Amino acid sequence: MKKHPILALVILGLAAFASTLRAAEETTTSMPSREVMWEMLQQQQKQIAELTALVKANQSSTVETRLELAQAKAAASNAQAEANNTRKALASTQAQLEATTLAVEESGSSFGSAGWWEKTSVGGYGELHANFYENADNEIDFHRFVLFVNHEYNDWITLYTELELEHSLAGDGASKPGEVELEQAFVRMDWTERFSTDAGLFLMPVGITNETHEPNTFYGVERNNIESRIIPSTWWEAGLKGTYRFNNGIAVDAGITSGLDMTTDGVIRGARQKVAEAINNEAAFVGRVKYTGIAGLELGASAFYQDEMKQSVGGDVSGLLTEVHADYSYQNFRLRALYARWDLSGTIDADAENQYGFYIEPSYRWQVSEKYGELGVYFRYSNYEYYTGTLLSENDIYELGLNYWPHPNVVFKADLQEISESDQYSANGDTVFNLGVGYQF
């Protein structure tokens, strides 16, 4: 049977409507409740609030970062400006320095001896002593303050000078015990590589410490008595001296000089005139042979002769000084020994005819550390006889001490002396403790 089209459409429409109603019924059944949807809405609002706060915080941080960046740019700009100013100031200073240098050079040229100061050197040394006696007042004394000024005229002519202030204060009266002394002023001419001459006022080539007596070069606060009473160190004369140095380590000195003037019978040390309006009726002769051909070893022998020792008063007294010494260093160990003797002939007290002395001095030196320098200990035995003008003084000295060098040219010293049959310290006692500090530069 054939169906009618309109009826079919009605049937289909009714079926679709029924299906829609079923779907709507099912949808209504699966949706969340109102309470749940309200809770979901509250959570979403909370999240939105947190996100909003985070966005605001990021915006604030961005503003601060931009502000810091602006400040950094300003600081960099200021630094650049300061650097530019510094470069300008440096350029100006350099220009001034170049102008000053040019002016100095032109000034030197105007003297006709450009750069003379470049060949002039200055040095010196000094030493302070404190002496603590057994039976007398203790003493402290800036014993020596010395300045050297040397000048090289050319590659073979050199001037050497040494000016010394002793005991800090010089003048008239007991309160000014010091002296201002010119101890060296001579011209050395190196004629060849091996031969030279010294003309002027120079130290006598006798003993160990007379020529080399800077405080950092020897042990003991005071210089040893043999090279003070027998060899009257520091001892200088005026004259001419020649030196020849062989290639095997032997050197020979020979000179003709001014001499001693023994105004007090038999007293050697008091006979020095120090080339101060000195009586010069009799010349003296000095000679030395020295060997340094082995590392660490020095052997020396000296002689001094003067035909008339009493130049100003007369007395027909001749004097001969002879001396030998050895100075040997091996690693940390060192040994020094010296013997000296005067033989006086003529009209003189028999006790003064022969005056002599010797000492022996072993020592040991080691490094404390690279920073704090070196320490050395020594022992010295001295024996000597010398004439005081009225009697023959005999002395034995046992001496023990140490040196501390925080720098090779700076030294601190301490020693203890036990003196038997002492005359020098008889009023002060036989035991002396000494402290000292010295330097050279």
UniProtKB/TrEMBL annotation:
What start and end residues bound the annotated signal peptide?
1-23
UniProt-listed SUPFAM superfamilies = Porins
The chain's coiled-coil residues are 69-96
Highest taxon of source: Bacteria
- Report keywords, A-Z: Coiled coil, Signal
Is-annotated flag, keyword Magnesium?
Answer: no
The molecule here is called: Porin
Biological source species: Coraliomargarita algicola
The opening ranks of the lineage are: Bacteria, Pseudomonadati, Verrucomicrobiota, Opitutia, Puniceicoccales
